[in-house]
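[Meeting: bench + compute handoff]

Bench side (C.D.) handed over the final construct sequence. Compute side (W.E.) agreed to return the predicted structure before the next meeting so the bench team could plan truncations. Sequence as handed over:
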Amino acid sequence: MGKKLTVRLVRGVAGRTKKQIGTLRALGLRKPNDVVVKDDCPEIRGMIRKVGHLVEVEE
């Protein structure tokens, strides 16, 4: 099994660009304090990098 990443949305999406909101939706995050577990792969890392100021990540 590969590594997993736990991603938590810590800031709201109000006032964010449509691209940032779309990236959060693609990660499965909708409201503050939502948590998802994703596989650690370059695609997910790139998405997290785009919205890194809105989320917390644990390995």
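W.E. noted at the follow-up: The CA atoms of residues 3 and 58 lie 11 Å apart. C.D. will use this when planning the next construct.
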